[in-house]
Amino acid sequence: WLLKNKQTNHWKTSKSTAAAIYALLLQGESGDISLWVTESVQPQITIGKEIIKNDPRDLQAGTGYFKKVYISDAISKDLATVKIKNDNTSVAWGAAYYQYFEQLDKIKTFADTPLKLDKKLYKVIITSKGDKLEEIKSNTPLKSGDKLKVRIELRVDRQMEYVHMKDMRASGFEPINVISEYKYQGQLGYYETTKDLATHFYFSYLPKGTFVFEYPLTVVHHGDFSGGVTSIESMYAPEYSSHSEGIRVKVK
Question: Which fold would CATH assign to domain 104-251?
């Protein structure tokens, strides 16, 4: 529980942090604190059918972080299986995650994570009864001057600290709100800032729950554009991340 808590939260005082670290050091078969420092057998890591062998000089000092790169021809379904064997008596702790490149409009929603994102893009239609929102699909006709609204739904299954969410937009769209400001949504406070390629949301504290973020855009250019995706990542634990689905939009 301590390790899971530390993954996504900032421990406020050095005294409580030292007590938590001491409790972790007592873990292991013998309860000997010195084993955490003296034991140096590297865990055996197997990816697919390949046993990963690393030169200690290639590991990041302190964390043991390393990266393994596969070219496209070497990627197979077997690589989805990762096995770790720890021959030390002390506890081993870490994380494995993979990164790859894909065209933005072909990206699918990633839902197997504590952070879940759902992004919708709407066309604002002005009527005598007020504004009406029409969800934009790949075949929805758009023209220069149309007003749009972005709606992002974020679901969080645990409290986290120091989280960054980035919402990309099509190059044919321009934001209406360009002033950076701190905003509140119930018990949630966050900093929103608009940049050339995306709108950014910074959370120093993100409580458990469901939150909806909206902001307006306007269509300014003609063409066939990738609508981009919304991504979110814990700054403390990058393995806790998620992204929305990518779409294409056409402006005539």
Answer: Immunoglobulin-like (2.60.40)
Prediction pTM value: 0.76
> Other CB atoms closer than 10 Å to residue 201's CB: what's the count?
23
Q: Which residues of the chain have pLDDT under 70?
A: 27-37, 62
- Residue ranges of alpha helices (H) inside the chain are 2-8, 14-25, 35-38
Calpha distance 48→50 (Å, rounded) = 6
DSSP E strands in 62-185: the ranges are 82-85, 115-127, 130-135, 147-156, 160-168, 173-175, 181-185
Residues 6+ apart with CB under 8 A from 108: 245
- The predicted-structure confidence for 52-108, as pLDDT tens digits, reads as follows 887 777 788 767 778 888 888 888 888 889 998 888 777 777 777 777 777 877 888
Q: Which residue has the tokens 């050091």?
A: 25
User: In which residue ranges of the chain is CATH 2.60.40.690 found?
Assistant: 104-251
